[in-house]
Design a protein that fits this description.
about 400 residues; mainly alpha; 3 domains
Length: about 400
């Protein structure tokens, strides 16, 4: 298969020595059945995939293995490519009845419906055209799926982002014709649908004069910043996670923390933000500003070495996912922090889901709170020119 030969060459998978160094970082290695080296040895998906289906589906594509590989194998890119080449027969269905994937596929069609922006409300201000846009992503869809089950209002993340921007005098462009960024479809082996989503989003934002795209999701940020450069090369806006944007505004003296005690925090580095994009300091500088300069407490593994939350792209969820979530929650609680903060709504959902499962099964867990960085920042930050009252935003 020439496509696989090209993929192996491009990702340097052929250089894998099976030395095992990647296993020291891989969060799935303790399972005993997962091996990055065995996946890297695949040369013919149509005949070799039968024995590797479980591993191909289970790989978190977190990139931890790449932190230790002496040969520089781009393993996550290789796995993504093999998923696109492998026959779908025998692949496991995604969690939640594949609802999120089905919604993304519908949005990839030529007659995708526009979004209802009623969740924004009357108190927040957005624009139809302008240089700065907020890419909302799938937050409204997560809201429908997880609010009743987990008590998470993910759309509050988008509202918090708009509130912060409004406080800085910015009316961000928010588009009813926005579509899913396509992250999950791309990483689940559906490049054609992803390409359609990327082209549609790029055309919509370019037509509104957008030069900077802000996201509150690590996966959306990585997709826009890295994958859209290839999928939509004619449109190159600046792309930032809101944590980066807020860190710059804090450094410029445009934002300040409210008076009043902020919770002690520890930060979960989302894989796409920390390892894939190398953004580790910006969210920490925001958290430090909220705490009067005190740095967040660090878990044993953090930054580029941080452990994954256990599920990537809603591709799978199993006992290993639960193990990883429980271990990460325990590591966060061990720091002594009151709140585990993350900058990815999927990390938030997965941790909250693990805690809900513990409560349902009456298992001993930990009581650490879990919160999104954007929501916490909106509650604790005000424009520097504003008096610093106590109380909620």
């Amino acid at each position: 298969m020439p496509e696989l030969a090209s993929l192996r060459k491009r990702t340097q998978a052929a250089l894998c020595l099976a030395c095992g160094k990647c296993s020291t970082m891989c969060p799935l290695s303790p399972s005993g059945w997962f091996s990055a080296a065995r996946l890297a040895a695949i040369r013919e998906p149509e005949t070799e995939i039968a024995g590797q289906t479980r591993s191909l589906d289970a790989c978190l594509t977190c990139g931890a293995c790449e932190q230790r590989c002496p040969e520089g194998v781009r393993f996550v890119e290789f796995v993504r490519g093999v998923r696109a080449l492998a026959p779908p027969v025998g692949r496991r269905a995604c969690p939640h009845g594949e609802m999120l994937q089905a919604a993304a596929r519908l949005m990839a069609g030529p007659t995708a419906p526009t979004r209802d922006l009623g969740w924004i409300g009357d108190e927040l201000e957005i624009a139809e055209t302008g240089e700065v846009a907020l890419f909302v992503g799938c937050l409204p869809f997560f809201d429908l799926l997880f609010t009743d089950e987990l008590g998470i209002a993910t759309v509050d993340i988008a509202r918090a982002a708009i509130r912060l921007l409004n406080g800085l005098g910015i009316r961000p462009v928010v588009l009813a014709e926005e579509r899913c960024c396509g992250h999950d479809l791309l990483w689940n082996g559906e490049p054609e649908a992803f390409q359609a989503l990327a082209a549609a989003n790029a055309a919509a934002f370019e037509a509104r004069g957008v030069k900077k795209v802000l996201t509150t999701c690590a996966e959306c940020c990585s997709t826009w910043r890295r994958d859209y450069r290839e999928a939509a090369p004619g449109y190159r806006p600046e792309v930032e996670h809101l944590a980066e944007f807020l860190a710059a505004r804090l450094a410029a003296g445009e934002l300040a923390a409210r008076d009043g005690a902020a919770p002690s925090t520890t930060f979960q580095d989302p894989c796409r933000l920390g390892r894939h994009l190398g953004v580790t300091e910006a969210p920490r500088s925001v958290l430090a500003a909220l705490a009067g300069g005190a740095a967040p407490l660090e878990m044993e593994r953090s930054g580029r070495d941080a452990d994954c939350c256990g599920t990537s792209g809603f591709i799978h969820c199993d006992a290993n996912s639960r193990r990883l979530q429980s271990e990460r929650l325990a590591a966060a609680a061990a720091t002594g922090a009151e709140t585990l903060v993350t900058a990815c709504p999927k990390c938030l959902i997965h941790f909250q889901c693990a805690q809900c499962e513990d409560r349902r099964r009456q298992r001993a867990g930990n009581g650490i709170a879990v919160e999104d960085l954007t929501v916490l920042a909106a509650r604790m930050l005000v424009p520097a020119s504003t008096a610093r009252p106590t109380g909620d935003a």
